[in-house]
Amino acid sequence: MTYDFQDRNNSGLASGSLKRSIFSPRTLFNTAMTWVAFICGALALIPLLAVLSYVSIQGFKRLSLSAFTELPPPPLVPGGGFGNAIIGTLITVGIGALISVPIGVLAAIYLTEFSSGKLARWIRFATNILSGIPSIIAGVFAYGIVVVTTGTFSAVAGGAALAVLMLPIIVRTTDEALQLVSKDLRQAAFGIGATNYQTVLGVVLPAALPAIITGVTLAIARASGETAPLLFTALFSQFWPNNIMAPTPSLAVLVFNFAIVPFKNQQELAWAASLILVIMVLITSIIARLATRRKAYR
Predict the structure, then answer these.
(1) What is the pTM of this model?
(2) CA atoms within 13 A on the CB side of 138
(3) CA distances from 139 to 87, 232, 253, 258, 278 (A)
(4) What is the per-residue pLDDT across 92-112, written as a single tens digit (0 to 9) for each?
(5) 10 CB-contact burial (10 Å; exposed 0-12 / middle 13-18 / buried 19+)
(6) pLDDT < 50 positions in the chain
């Protein structure tokens, strides 16, 4: 006995088409949720685009060569710039990176490669708590430890406060990057006679380096825009920084000081300095993105 689709269609049975009607409940629900997700994604971009566009419009009005080469002006004096604040920001963030990067990377290596499970869980728990503390607490801590001890506000004190904020980010990202390295690479290194230290330095770290760079750049991006810790530690200065043990200017504190004064010239400088801060954060984010792409292509 033979039976084909033609006989089935001729007998009045369904044709067996897999095409779903656009008016079916499942299709309508899928289309509606797709549009809801798209609208929510667009709404999430609105605050970012609004901030970037407004800061760019206000900041570009005052950007010029003098803004990068001159000192902040006194009240009611036209012109001036924030060149000293740019250098001071680089100094304080650099000191924070010099303190936090070695400690954070070595701590993550210990957590992943050498520590016991229970101790590692407690250290990771403490790191998560540290990452959630307000930045002003880090500033008060650095003030009590460094400023009170040395008797002066300084770039070193500011760098110490920023290092406290950068450290948990570096530890967490490096820890996760090391855990993602395949165990086969470790076993292959052990198979050819490498020690644990040789495996970590020669195999694990190079494989995780792009993700580690990503974590470091993200930590630097956060530290470069902090204001509260620097108010307690580095304070500010109207002059070029020439001593890391003296009050040091920074872009974030300059924006804070100039944005609240009633003088138009200084307010314009605050907007221009805000734009430079945004550009610095954008550059570090691009570096992190490139490092992540390099990891994906390895």
Answers:
(1) 0.83
(2) 27
(3) 20, 6, 13, 21, 22
(4) 999 999 999 999 999 999 988
(5) exposed
(6) 1-3, 5-16, 296-297
